[in-house]
Structure formats: structure tokens, C-alpha cells
């Protein structure tokens, strides 16, 4: 073989080695890229599944579909996340509300994130103690599903009934004849009572008594649910 042919053969071998090396590097990068895509897809699927569970009507954080309970959110930590969402166990999961971290089970910074627009519901306690006479009507400014009515009338005054939206919900008539010594009427409502009401309309309260009631004689406590919009974020790095 001539010297020129040997030189050409050597050049061909070198070229083949270079091509093989480049192909190996390319395949390695491609494999890594596909692996990254697969992991990212797995993260996204798990994040979407956890988000769907969180906002479901029977979800561990929800009052109803897409309405989250503020108390449930405030009670979240790593252990409760794994208890409420078994699929999260063994993975780094971060739950956020408007980007504020609620709880996390590990560092999920590099994982996929899914956002859900939700309402956050917070139950408040509001008490009202107006004076009541025959024409007085207490209109509650926010809807509630229950009331607590505390009745402590002044001596000699009988509270015979309490009505909500025109329907009598508490009744205890005066005792016939009254107190033989003082002549004051006796009987009637006295104490604290729980009353269920419709949460689909604003409630009105009226009181029937033997005489006008000063402020504080009947205290009505309502438990309205106040909501605001927020974004629930679920980030997963599996």
C-alpha cells in the first residue's frame, strides 16, 4: 500500500472515531433530555392530581367544591399533607396560597407546578344585642347556617318566643297566673339556644315578650362564612 493510501486510511479511521464519539455524546444528551421530560411529566401529573383532590367537594381542605376551609389550610404541615394526600408520600410537595407557603414535604423548587383558582372561606363570629320591642326586627347583614340565641330578660319580663324569617323557632309561653307573691309573669325563655337557619338568605330575627326588652336581654350570635379569591399552587418534585 502506498504512503498516500495509508494516510487516507488513517484519516478515515480518525473521522469514524470522531463521528462515533459525537454520536455517543448526542445520544447521551438526548437520553438525559428525554429522562428529564419524563420526570417533568410525572411531576406535572402528580401535581394536577393533588390539586384536583384538594379542591374536590369531598377533599380534605374543602368546604365544598373549589371552596377551601381557612381553618384547614392554617392547620397544614408536612405530616398532615401526607395524611390527607397519600399520593404525596415519598415525594417533595409544596402547597402555596397566593405564593405563600402553606406546607411542604421536601424541597420541590425544581418540580412542576399546577395552579387552581379557588375561594377561601373563613367562618366568623358576630354578636348582636339590640333592644327589642313589639316592632323591632334584627336584620343580620350576612348569611349563616346557625344562630346562638342567649336570653336573659330583666326581672318581671317574659320572653315568649323568638322568630327567624317569620317562623317561630323558640317558644315558651308565660305561666298562667304568674308569681303569686310579686304578681310578675313567670315562665318564658331563659338560657342559651342553638337554632338552625337557612344559609341561602339573610336572616331576620324578632322577639315576642311581655314588655319591651332593653339592649342585651337577647343576644343573637351568627357564624357567617366570608370568602375571597385566591390561587392554590401545588408543586411536586418526584
Pick out its properties.
Jelly Rolls; single chain; rod-shaped; alpha+beta
Layout of helices and strands, plus pairs?
Layout: H1 3-55, E1 62-64, E2 67-69, H2 70-74, H3 78-84, E3 92-97, E4 100-104, E5 112-123, E6 126-128, E7 138-139, E8 146-151, E9 159-164, E10 167-171, E11 174-175, E12 186-187, E13 191-196, E14 204-209, E15 218-222, E16 225-237
Parallel strand pairs: 2-5
Antiparallel strand pairs: 1-2, 3-4, 3-16, 5-16, 6-15, 7-14, 8-13, 8-15, 9-10, 9-14, 11-12
Describe the structure.
There is one protein chain. The model is unreliable at 23-38 (pLDDT under 50). The protein folds into two domains: 1-123 and 225-238, no CATH class; 126-222, Jelly Rolls (Sandwich), CATH 2.60.120. The protein has 238 residues and is of the alpha+beta class. The protein has a six-stranded mixed β-sheet. A four-stranded antiparallel β-sheet has the order 6-15-8-13, with no helix packed on it. Strands 7-14-9-10 form a four-stranded antiparallel β-sheet, with no helix packed on it. It has helices spanning 3-55, 70-74, 78-84; strands at 62-64, 67-69, 92-97, 100-104, 112-123, 126-128, 138-139, 146-151, 159-164, 167-171, 174-175, 186-187, 191-196, 204-209, 218-222, 225-237. Strand 3 (92-97) and strand 4 (100-104) form a beta hairpin. It is 27% helix and 36% strand. The protein is rod-shaped, with a radius of gyration of 35 Å.
Amino acid at each position: 500500500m502506498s504512503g498516500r493510501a495509508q494516510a487516507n486510511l488513517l484519516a478515515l479511521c480518525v473521522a469514524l472515531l470522531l463521528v462515533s464519539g459525537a454520536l455517543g455524546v448526542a445520544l447521551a444528551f438526548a437520553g438525559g433530555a428525554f429522562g428529564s421530560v419524563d420526570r417533568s411529566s410525572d411531576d406535572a401529573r402528580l401535581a394536577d392530581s393533588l390539586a384536583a383532590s384538594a379542591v374536590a367537594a369531598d377533599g380534605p381542605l374543602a368546604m365544598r367544591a373549589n371552596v377551601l376551609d381557612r381553618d384547614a389550610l392554617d392547620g397544614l404541615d408536612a405530616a398532615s399533607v401526607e395524611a390527607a394526600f397519600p399520593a404525596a408520600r415519598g415525594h417533595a410537595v409544596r402547597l402555596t396560597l397566593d405564593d405563600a407557603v402553606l406546607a411542604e414535604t421536601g424541597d420541590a423548587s425544581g418540580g412542576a407546578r399546577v395552579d387552581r383558582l379557588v375561594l377561601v372561606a373563613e367562618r366568623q363570629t358576630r354578636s348582636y344585642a339590640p333592644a327589642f320591642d313589639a316592632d323591632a326586627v334584627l336584620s343580620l347583614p350576612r348569611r349563616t347556617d346557625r344562630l346562638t340565641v342567649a336570653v336573659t330578660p330583666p326581672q318581671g319580663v317574659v320572653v315568649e318566643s323568638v322568630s327567624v324569617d317569620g317562623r317561630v323557632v323558640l317558644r315558651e309561653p308565660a305561666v298562667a297566673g304568674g308569681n303569686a307573691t310579686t304578681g310578675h309573669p313567670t315562665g318564658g325563655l331563659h338560657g342559651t339556644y342553638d337554632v338552625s337557619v337557612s344559609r341561602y338568605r339573610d336572616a331576620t330575627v324578632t322577639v315576642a315578650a311581655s314588655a319591651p326588652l332593653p339592649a342585651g336581654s337577647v343576644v343573637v350570635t351568627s357564624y357567617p362564612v366570608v370568602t375571597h379569591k385566591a390561587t392554590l399552587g401545588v408543586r411536586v418534585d418526584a
